[in-house]
Write a structure and sequence with these properties.
- With 287 residues, the protein is α+β, with helices and mostly antiparallel strands.
- The chain has 3 domains: 1-62, 2,3-Dihydroxybiphenyl 1,2-Dioxygenase, domain 1, CATH 3.10.180; 78-139, Signal recognition particle alu RNA binding heterodimer, srp9/1 (2-Layer Sandwich); 141-286, Aminopeptidase, CATH 3.40.630.30.
- It is built from 6 helices and 15 strands.
- It has helices spanning 15-25, 83-92, 131-140, 153-164, 168-179, 231-245; strands spanning 7-11, 29-35, 41-49, 52-57, 76-79, 102-103, 109-114, 120-125, 142-145, 187-192, 195-203, 216-222, 251-255, 267-273, 280-286.
- The strands form 3 sheets. A 7-stranded mixed sheet has the order 9-10-11-12-13-15-14, sandwiched between helices. It has a 4-stranded mixed sheet with strand order 1-4-3-2, covered by helices on one side.
- Helix 4 (153-164) packs antiparallel against helix 5 (168-179).
- The longest helix is centred in the C-terminal third of the chain and has 15 residues, at 231-245.
- The radius of gyration is 27 Å and the shape is elongated.
- It starts with 6 loop residues before the first strand and ends with a strand.
Length: 287
């Protein structure tokens, strides 16, 4: 199981010049050195972040091929908290500046430079609207079943009640049945730490007249601050996969949305009359 990116290795023509550039100009810290049998400096490890290093090897003599059509490593990207300050630091220390600060396609802010051997370096600031920052937040949040976290029963019942107005006891009753193994119609939560930030459930019928279309996904909700990160899609996929493993398929849901559930493999089936609703709602199916 891969747990992280440990290090990137570069062979330098002048290892000490490279050490000076990465430490004095970019602010990395030297971690340790290793020497060859002849006593000559062979390797220097530079600390980037916990368990992340840049490894510099000595005695490079042949330049690497460069160009946009060359197969292999394109560049190294280092993250900064402030692209403006990094740009000014590079400028003040006389480092080569290969670009002004600009906005990347992923909406991150970046500036480009290169080390003494010409290795291309991107220095990136991940602003909240960047795709990388959104992905970080998405992977930080974990999707679980209530059976994975039964201690969240009361919190979950309260959370769904606050979002949908259905009595808390109704949620608690259905969730307890699921936890006790009386039904396989589950409850699925997205957690940021121990905080519930998204969720959905599966019940027999989501208050409409097509009782033959069962079971139904219900109560799909993501906290506003967490929207746009694919959380609802992850929860939907988790529910579909979980129930398919138990032989429960297809699934149905009732909604007024168009163009959303289609992204996750759901298709429009028909219209249904919701209890107490003036207009019919759309019914989707996932087979």
């Amino acid at each position: 199981m891969i747990k992280g990116l440990s290090h990137i290795a570069i062979r330098a023509s002048d290892i000490l010049a490279s050490v000076r550039f990465y430490t004095e100009t970019l602010g990395l810290r030297e971690a340790f050195r290793m020497y060859g049998e002849d006593g000559a400096l062979a390797t220097v490890y530079l600390y980037i972040a916990p368990s992340q290093y840049l490894e510099l090897f000595a005695n490079g003599s042949r330049p690497a091929d460069t160009g946009k059509d060359v197969i292999g490593l394109c560049h190294i990207c280092l993250e900064t908290e402030d692209a403006e300050k990094m740009y000014e630091t590079l400028k003040a220390k006389g480092a080569p500046l290969d670009s002004e600060i600009r906005l990347g396609k992923s909406k991150c802010r970046m500036v480009w430079t290169h080390d003494p051997d010409g290795n291309s370096l991107e220095i990136m600031e991940l602003v909240p609207e960047s795709l990388q920052a959104q992905a970080n937040a998405r992977f930080k949040c974990v999707c679980v079943t209530l059976r994975d976290k039964p201690e969240l029963l009361e919190d979950a019942a309260r959370w769904f009640h606050e979002k949908w107005g259905v009595p808390e006891e109704a949620y608690r009753e259905r969730m307890t049945a699921y936890l006790n193994g009386e039904t396989e119609y589950g409850w699925y939560l997205c957690l940021d730490g121990e905080r519930i930030v998204g969720g959905l459930g599966v019940i027999d019928n989501d208050f409409h007249d097509r009782k033959d279309l069962a079971p139904n996904v219900c109560a799909v909700y993501t906290e506003k601050a967490y929207r746009g990160r694919g959380i609802a899609g992850r929860l939907l996929n988790k529910a579909v996969e979980d129930l398919k493993e138990k032989g429960i398929t297809p699934l149905y849901l009732v909604t007024d949305h168009t163009g959303f559930y289609e992204r996750y493999g759901w298709t429009f089936l028909c219209m249904a009359q919701g209890d107490g609703e003036a207009e019919k709602s759309r019914v989707y199916v996932h087979r």
